[in-house]
Amino acid sequence: MSPSPSLAESWLRGVAANPAAPSDVLIRLLDPAGRPAWRTLCEERDLPADVVDAVVAHPDRAVRRAFARNPHVDPAQRGRLVRDPSGLVRADLASGPRPRPRRLRPLPDDVIDALLTADEAGEDGRLTADEIVGELTSSRQIPLSYWHVLHEHPHPRLRLIGVHNLRWRGLDPARRAALLADPDPDVREAAARGVRYLDPTAMEADLPEEDCHSRRWLLTNYPVTDAVAEACLAAGRDLWSLAQNRYTPSFAVVRLARDPDPEVRERVAARADVDADLLAELAEDPDETVRTRAVAHPLPRTWAERDAVDGVLGWHAVDCDCPIPEPDAWRTYGPDARWFEACAVSEHAILRRVAASHPALPAALVGPLAEDPDPEVRHRLACHHPLAPPATVLATFVERPRQRRHLLTLPGMPRTGLDHLLDHDDPEVRALAAADPTLDQPPVRLLTDPDERVRRAAAAAPALRDERALAALLDDPATAEGAAANPNLPAARLRALLDLAGVPAPDARLP
Fold first, then answer.
1. What is the C-alpha separation between 266 and 257, in angstroms, rounded?
2. Which of 12, 16, 417, 454 is the most exposed place for a label (fewest CB within 10 A)?
């Protein structure tokens, strides 16, 4: 008797997710009859090398697009699609996995080169090459090491991109002079514009009058003249940008410290060059946010330290799930390692949060932070530090649902000893516990759980080994997908499920 279409699709998705499925079974799912399993197979798991070969060469771009978004495979394997005939496939490769992981592995340099220098966007004509470049440059798949030397690349188009993304303040004079004399006129023009912004008088002349991103960017990051600062103060505009800008004249900083807007005063309280008397005044500010920022970060400070503290406040405050910087970012732009060590033993929770966010913090300081009375310190440690104790990582998984997708990617995430969580109120936690391979008994009671995710995890549990029980679960629409993903199913049974679901065997295609 043939299964219902919905039951057959459940089997296909389960087989695609089965960690014990052999390559021939997985490759068989690439047949058009296996389409319901394509996303699970190509996007949601790691794959053996021979299956990757079959996916990359597959004639249907839906298969290749799914693989281009796969966060589980090595980026070099995804990078094999860089010259795919479909622009949509290349765009998915350039955009990267979705939803984006907090910590994203970069693409290889040669793949980035090919995407950035492509003259056309593929045969389907749905995108332009520039649109694909835009996807790539905003994807976080380009490592800092690539950006650091891109302005020296032999290809002029890449040098131009590198010049547009340079941090001109830190570039030595010899390198600036070389870019100003570059053989490519577009590179020379971009270099001249970048150098010009370092001159406050030139920046004043080029500053747009209308409110726009360019104006805010210049007033936040580049040197300003006294006249520009005075004009902003007089008009009461762009004051947050001035308060944030490390080059703002001292007379303006004093006036900004008394501005009616607490967000402006808070930026002054965060500055590395703030006067001690002015900081003491801000420590008595009527606004709690201003007071906290003035008190939590003692003088003397550096601008890199200011930025690190910013990283745990504002948009990055409690339960932040935004991108985690790659290690190069800490080494290149971050404060001295000794400052992080001092933060780890600070009386201020904000600074301990900063320390807990630093992945290179010495092991001796990790233990105390894992027991910190401030929960945000413990949770940041779990998300950021490779030596965070498993118990701390598990506690964060239980207590912070927004962090779960990230935590499940970490090698320190506990997968065993979870039987005490089988009856937890949260279904995601019960599902994690059900997958524990060390359970003495299969979590039978969870097979009728009201939550589909829990039922699926219970049916796929490695502890569930009884063939008769698995056969019954495979015939039940509520548990069929999980049972088909159970690693205890023999390969012959997986092949039989594909037969019943109508996926032809390779021999069936022969004349």
1. 8
2. 417
- Per-residue CA distances from 45 to 25, 42, 73, 272, 436 (Å): 15, 7, 7, 46, 18
Q: Which two tokens stand for residue 429?
A: 């936690």
- The residue type found at 146 is Y
Q: Residue 432 and residue 457: Cα distance in Å, rounded?
A: 8
- Residues recorded for the chain: 511
Residue 484 in tokens: 């088909």
* Inter-residue contact 459 to 444 (CB < 8 Å): no
293 neighbors 269 (Cβ within 8 angstroms):
yes
- Does residue 160 contact residue 190 with C-beta atoms inside 8 Å? yes
What's the CA gap between 120 and 386, in Å, rounded?
41
For residue 13, count CB atoms less than 10 angstroms from its CB and return exposed for 0-12, middle for 13-18, buried for 19 or more: buried
User: pLDDT for 2-60, tens place per residue?
Assistant: 899 999 999 999 999 999 999 999 999 999 999 999 999 999 999 999 999 999 999 99
Check residue 171 and give left, alpha or beta (phi > 0: left; psi -120 to 50: alpha): beta
Picking from 347, 381, 375, 348, the residue whose alpha carbon sits closest to that of residue 363 is 381
Three-state DSSP class for residue 418 = coil
The structure's pTM equals 0.91
Show the tokens assigned to 346.
């600070």
For residue 353, give both structure tokens: 């949060």
Q: What is the pLDDT of residues 362-403, one digit of tens each?
A: 999 999 999 999 999 999 999 999 999 999 999 999 999 999
Structure tokens at 422: 């089988």
Phi-psi region of 21 (alpha: psi -120 to 50; beta: other; left: phi over 0): beta
Apex 65 CA angle, 59 and 68, nearest 5: 120
- Which of helix, strand or coil describes residue 476? coil
Whether residue 472 contacts residue 450, with contact meaning beta carbons closer than 8 Å, is answered with: no
For tokens 């949770």, the residue is 379
Amino acid making up residue 333: Y
191 near 163, Cβ under 8 Å? yes
Give CA angle at 340 (334, 341), nearest 5°. Answer: 150
For 198-241, give the DSSP string.
Answer: TSHHHHHHH--SS--HHHHHHHHHS---HHHHHHHHHHT-SHHH
Q: Are 290 and 282 in contact (CB under 8 A)?
A: yes
